[in-house]
UniProtKB/TrEMBL annotation, chain A:
Protein name from the UniProt record: pyruvate dehydrogenase (acetyl-transferring)
Molecular function via GO: metal ion binding; pyruvate dehydrogenase (acetyl-transferring) activity
Primary role: The pyruvate dehydrogenase complex catalyzes the overall conversion of pyruvate to acetyl-CoA and CO(2). It contains multiple copies of three enzymatic components: pyruvate dehydrogenase (E1), dihydrolipoamide acetyltransferase (E2) and lipoamide dehydrogenase (E3).
Keyword Oxidoreductase: yes
Source taxon at top rank: Eukaryota
Chemical reaction(s) catalysed: N(6)-[(R)-lipoyl]-L-lysyl-[protein] + pyruvate + H(+) = N(6)-[(R)-S(8)-acetyldihydrolipoyl]-L-lysyl-[protein] + CO2
Cofactor(s) this protein cannot do without: thiamine diphosphate
Enzyme class, broadest EC rank: oxidoreductase
Main location class: plastid
Taxonomic placement: Eukaryota, Viridiplantae, Streptophyta, Embryophyta, Tracheophyta
Domain Transketolase-like pyrimidine-binding, residue spans: 86-261
Source organism (scientific name): Trapa natans (Water chestnut)
UniProt subunit comment: Tetramer of 2 alpha and 2 beta subunits.
Automatic annotation (TrEMBL), chain B:
InterPro entries: DH_E1 (IPR001017), PDH_E1_Alpha_Subunit (IPR050642), Pyrv_DH_E1_asu_subgrp-y (IPR017597), THDP-binding (IPR029061)
Cofactor(s), names only, from the UniProt record: thiamine diphosphate
Assembly behavior: Tetramer of 2 alpha and 2 beta subunits.
Keywords attached to this entry: Oxidoreductase, Pyruvate, Thiamine pyrophosphate
Domain of life the protein comes from: Eukaryota
Function per UniProt: The pyruvate dehydrogenase complex catalyzes the overall conversion of pyruvate to acetyl-CoA and CO(2). It contains multiple copies of three enzymatic components: pyruvate dehydrogenase (E1), dihydrolipoamide acetyltransferase (E2) and lipoamide dehydrogenase (E3).
Catalytic function, reaction form: N(6)-[(R)-lipoyl]-L-lysyl-[protein] + pyruvate + H(+) = N(6)-[(R)-S(8)-acetyldihydrolipoyl]-L-lysyl-[protein] + CO2
Name of the protein this chain belongs to: Pyruvate dehydrogenase E1 component subunit alpha
Enzyme nomenclature, EC number: 1.2.4.1
Domain Dehydrogenase E1 component intervals: 94-396
Length: 406, 433
């Protein structure tokens, strides 16, 4: 036992910054010790071997209320060339433009996407380049133009429908649920619907209740669609391209506060996998599952946690439907503790589904109940202070981890 | 441009001088509405030709067409018949197929061969035949839950439709759609929708694709037209108006056909609509609105020719209101107690099949024997369809999880690292999704 502790201490000192107190490490004590120790040792060896190969972790400078404006080189990008720096909305545009260049059937529809360039500038310049029909300014009729996109997708085009704010797509729920998700099935596989529905959602900076909605919880039950959430310029571009190339209908969730994130991304073309989760920070003690903006709150909490001696493993699940049970499962098997941090509402949110999925599949590996931190079931208030209290803050994450790791 | 409609009301809108310059912009200038100003709205819109022609400075809206009313067809002369013998037989056969098929559906339903909601089209055959028989195979048709006859008119074999109704795997949608979701990629039938109104945006999208193909993908010969069928109840739904706006705005090649049978289940059209004349709503959005007697297939056909021709030439959409009637209830579950028996009797006397027969006999187009031969042929066809459907297999369990995604990777990655669709339980249909 002592030898193991010492070994861990050495390994930990190799790869963790900050002081490490081996006495703070808590072994899971509900299982038979021998089994645990064995697995612990195995993990330890793996850790020592791979410690030096760990990609450099990025320090996230994010104040809880404001948008992160600068970030250092991405840990996720493994560019061989230097790459180029850009903001997240530019990365989305780059991905969209590359796909439109590549395939003339890709078109964009939405409010103010053409001449205005998009309310968040994701489609800026595209109408000049591709014309008014390919980058279509629609009237304010979400249900109808989303349905039009679906009809166009069924007859051979590959539209990208933009909801100016994700919340507006509630008006298109009829089309998204009944037609987008179901028609491939009810037509017996005759018509495919390669549509991408995208837009910014999430709690912004005092935008009020209706502009601060998280629709991922409402859409997740629709059969036949995939949902992904981007969180960095690197995965934004990759997921945009993957979503456009996918034959399935994909809903791409962006976040209002993340559009100005800057990152260096590779020059060469890359497409990410729609169904895979992203390992943000490997760790040993606890698995923290998150997506979109909460990733940054988690990473900020991770700094504090590391200083306190914890080693959280942070995974950006990215694929909200379906869940990447492989990455998640491997992590659960390693750490035995799960914390889900999300911006969704508590009731019926992504976290609730994820909790159910993990419990179903990995119950035996858990040493503590899964804890899920979500936004309060409250319409987002306008007042800044109240708004802060509706979403999960880094301090809450730290407390939760401490609680789980006792 | 003069076109001939017979015995119909057409809204006339003379072109205002202010508009004429704007509307000569090339169709590729995709700037949206070409109307710069609106004059004061006219007090009332007269449906008569002469009054409208006099109203030169009328506000709006529609693309103008000066329509001359055609003289009522004289029975004696055969030189200006509305239809040739071949066309007449084709049209007759299609309507009889629709009628016999629907009657057979009712029989099969009461025998327990099909279940759920089945909505029959008896009495409205003139609308389906009148429009769809003028379409090419590449043209798209979008319908509602009352879609069996639209499918048959478009060319989907009766066998496939009947199998679909029986829920067999040989159905046009492999048994997965049912009565309300008829689809056929081969015949470009894009549904089949259960909620009213939700097919109209889909139709608008299909028309958009046609325009896109011509103008962006430069397929110069792409002039495919989409015809959207829906009822009077749908005309109070927001999606209808949103699509009228977009179709007129972008001059999409689409025809909106309202099958106004005066009843939405038990809700009379007059009780639910502030202005029951639906054709009037077309000009409000900038497209011609036409009202036609939907119990007369020849009149419907004339209007359809013009409307489809307009769309094909790139002149934009048309709203056609067909006054028609369903002889049966809303669905086979509807006791149909609210409708006045006198009303039913009046419309039964205007049975479109009987009317066409009468026209063809009076004009010596066909002989009794030829029509009887068609009747027999159709009876056999429908019997064969029932037999085929009866003998077809039910879908096996393996079909359950197919077709949920076009790319089954969408089911995600399982705990073992493999895509879940690679799991044999998926092809067997026993996996839990």
């Amino acid at each position: 036992m002592a030898a193991t502790f010492q070994g861990l201490g050495a390994a930990a000192a190799l790869s963790l910054s900050g002081s490490f107190d081996p006495n703070r490490l808590h072994l899971p004590c509900r299982r038979s010790l021998s089994v645990t120790r064995l697995s612990f040792v195995v993990r330890l060896e793996e850790r020592i071997v791979s410690g030096s190969n760990l990609p450099p972790r990025r320090a996230q400078q994010l104040v809880s209320k404001a948008v992160a404006t600068k970030a250092d080189a991405a840990s996720a990008s493994t560019a061989s060339k230097p790459g180029h720096e850009l903001l997240l909305f530019e990365a989305l545009r780059e991905g969209l433009e590359e796909e439109m260049d590549r395939d003339p059937q890709v078109c964009v529809m939405g409010e103010d996407v053409g001449h205005y360039g998009g309310s968040y500038k994701v489609t800026k310049g595209l109408a000049d380049k591709f014309g008014d029909l390919r980058v279509l300014d629609t009237p304010i009729a979400e249900n109808a133009f989303t349905g039009m996109g679906i009809g166009a997708a069924m007859t051979g085009l590959r539209p990208v429908v933009e909801g100016m704010n994700m919340g507006f797509l509630l008006l298109a729920f009829n089309q998204i649920s009944n037609n987008c998700g179901m028609l491939h099935y009810t037509s017996g596989g005759q018509f495919k619907i390669p549509i991408v529905i995208r837009g910014p959602g999430g709690v912004g900076r005092q935008l009020g209740a209706e502009h601060s909605q998280r629709l991922e919880s409402y859409f997740q039950s629709i059969p036949g669609i995939q949902m992904v959430a981007c969180s960095t310029p690197y995965n934004a571009k990759g997921l945009m391209k993957a979503a456009i190339r996918s034959e399935n209908p994909v809903i791409l969730f962006e976040h209002v506060l993340l559009y100005n994130l800057k990152e260096r991304i590779p020059d060469e073309e890359y497409v990410l996998n729609l169904e895979e989760a992203e390992m943000v920070r490997p760790g040993e003690h606890i698995t923290i599952l998150t997506y979109s903006r909460m990733r940054y709150h988690v990473m900020q909490a991770a700094k504090t946690l590391v200083n306190k001696g914890y080693d959280p493993e942070v995974i950006d699940i990215r694929s909200l439907k379906p869940f990447d049970l492989y990455t998640i499962g491997n992590s659960v098997k390693k750490t035995h503790r799960v914390l889900i941090v999300e911006e969704c509402m508590r009731t019926g949110g992504i976290g609730a589904s994820l909790t159910a999925a993990i419990t179903e599949n990995f119950h035996d590996y858990l040493d503590a109940p899964i804890m899920c931190l979500s936004s309060q079931d409250v319409p987002t208030p306008y007042a800044g202070t109240l708004e802060n209290w509706t979403v999960v803050q880094p301090a809450q994450i730290v407390t939760a981890v401490e609680q789980l790791c006792q | 441009m003069a076109t001939a409609f017979s015995s119909i009301n057409v809204v006339q809108h003379a072109r205002c001088d202010n508009f004429s310059v704007a509307s000569r912009k090339p169709s590729s200038a995709f700037l949206g509405s070409t109307y710069s100003i609106r004059l004061s709205p006219s007090a009332s819109r007269s449906a008569s030709v002469s009054a409208a022609v006099n109203r030169k400075a009328s506000s709006v809206s529609a693309v103008s067409e000066v329509v001359k009313e055609k003289k009522q067809k004289s029975v004696s002369s055969g030189s200006n018949l509305l239809i040739t013998k071949e066309e007449g037989l084709e049209v007759y056969e299609d309507m009889v197929l629709g009628r016999v098929f629907e009657d057979m559906c009712a029989q099969m339903y009461y025998r327990g061969k099909m279940f759920g909601f089945v909505h029959l089209y008896n009495g409205q055959e003139a609308v389906s035949t009148g429009f769809i028989k003028l379409l090419k195979k590449e043209d798209c048709v979008v319908s509602t839950y009352r879609d069996h006859v639209h499918a048959l008119s478009k060319g989907v074999p009766a066998r496939e439709v009947m199998s679909e109704l029986f829920g067999k795997t040989t159905g046009c949608c492999r048994g997965q759609g049912g009565s309300m979701h008829m689809f056929s990629k081969e015949h470009n039938l894009i549904g089949g929708f259960a909620f009213i109104g939700e097919g109209i945006p889909i139709a608008t999208g299909a028309a958009f694709t046609s325009k896109y193909r011509r103008e962006v993908l430069k397929e110069a010969d792409c002039d495919h037209v989409t015809v959207a069928f829906f009822g009077d109840g749908t005309c109070n739904n927001g999606q209808f108006y949103e699509c009228l706006n977009m179709a007129a705005l972008w001059k999409l090649p689409i025809v909106f056909v309202v099958e106004n049978n005066l009843w939405a289940i038990g809700m009379s059209h007059l009780r639910s609509t502030s202005d029951p004349e639906i054709w009037k709503k077309g000009p409000a959005f900038g497209m011609p609105g036409v009202h036609v007697d939907g119990m007369d297939v020849l009149k419907v056909r004339e209007v359809a020719k013009e409307a489809i021709g307009r769309a094909r030439r790139g002149e934009g959409p048309t709203l056609v209101e067909c006054e028609t009637y369903r002889f049966r209830g809303h669905s086979l579950a509807d006791p149909d107690e609210l409708r006045d028996p006198d009303e039913k009797a009046r419309y039964a006397a205007r049975d479109p099949i009987a009317a066409l027969k009468k026209y063809m006999f009076e004009n010596n187009l066909v002989k009794e024997a030829e029509l009887k031969a068609i009747d027999k042929k159709i009876d056999e066809l429908v019997e064969d369809a029932v037999e085929f459907a009866d003998e077809s297999p039910q879908p096996s369990r393996s079909q359950l999880l197919e077709n949920v995604f076009a790319d089954p990777k969408g089911f995600g990655i399982g705990p073992d690292g493999r895509y879940r669709c690679e799991d044999p339980k998926f092809t067997e249909g026993t996996a839990h999704v």
